[in-house]
């Protein structure tokens, strides 16, 4: 397969431009933004770098083929035309998953079966065997049909990029994904010269992601990827990308990151997660209700994901909580405030219209990211919100 490859960084709805900004910051040009994904060009080293560095993307895919498919024969021939033997060794494991939307080939199981058969036939011609053990390296293949256009991709990432590795003992404890938490920090334009506070910190995800941004820690450094075992992505590429990432860490920067939550048990979870991520001393946590929260410092930033009050009995509590945050911010005239919430009445309860709002989806929940910009520190006149 000739390089450069077409790479795809997948994105949750509403986060495509954030992923694109990350890719530009990593030095990639010729970026194409589509619904749910951002396309860019690269080779083996770029696959490694993207997996290690992207904070807000879910997966890094390689586009193997894209063609019109209105019949199963179209799909079979298009999939078979890919030189799979260049990628998949004789013992490679290659499951096929699929999706179909607004296409004539609407049966996903049938499409998966056709693509699997096509790949097997192509490999049989090259390896001269009738049976594949599939006990070796893992190659997850996905066929996506949209408006009768089939796109076949290889997943280089494996488990979603939001699984950083510091939450191994905290499964199910955090309603805010790491990718979304990182996006909120990046959208706030916080930087480590300013204090950061979360009065509803839960198990600490948002603050840990901020600390990783503050120290320029690549979020994928603590985990592995199935493509590390692929012949076309050499071990030397992973070694080079990881060495670059380790050299880029700036752990000499002082962080002023604090969080509180009314739940003492969840604060203990936050401390464990921060320690696991390498920020046990840098992030300060306290069991405290919002009404008593008083963050220290000037020109700080509050970023928070307050409870949503999905049950009717909780709605009054959420309204009260938002009002308390509004009162708190009156005592912090130099601070900026950012909150993600599904509440349509957030600004009413908070007491002030937002400077800016942005629609985001926290999982399947439509939310607004309410942004209240405070004054910038006088010592950084060129800093922009």
What does this structure look like?
By secondary structure, this protein is of the alpha/beta class. The protein contains ten helices and 14 strands. β11 (301-304), α9 and β12 (336-341) form a beta-alpha-beta unit. The longest helix has 20 residues, at 108-127. The two termini are 43 Å apart.
Primary descriptors:
385 residues, alpha/beta, 7-stranded mixed sheet, elongated
Give the helices and strands, then pairings.
Elements: E1 5-10, H1 16-25, E2 32-34, E3 37-42, H2 44-53, E4 60-68, H3 72-80, E5 96-101, H4 108-127, E6 140-146, E7 149-155, H5 178-188, E8 196-198, H6 205-214, H7 235-248, E9 257-261, H8 264-277, E10 283-287, E11 301-304, H9 315-330, E12 336-341, H10 346-350, E13 356-362, E14 365-372
Parallel strand pairs: 5-6, 8-9, 8-11, 9-10, 11-12
Antiparallel strand pairs: 1-3, 1-4, 2-3, 4-7, 6-7, 12-14, 13-14
The largest beta-sheet arranges its strands as 2-3-1-4-7-6-5
Number of helices: 10
Overall geometry comes to: elongated
Supply the helix-strand structural class.
alpha/beta
Question: How far apart are the termini?
Answer: 43 Å
Approximate strand percentage: 15-25%
Q: How much is the average pLDDT? A: 94
Along the chain, the helix and strand elements come as EHEEHEHEHEEHEHHEHEEHEHEE
The proportion of residues forming helix, as a percent range, comes to 25-40%
**DSSP strand tally:** 14
Low-pLDDT runs of 5+ residues are none
Describe the sheet with the most strands: 7 strands, mixed
What is the gyration radius calculated from CA atoms?
23 Å
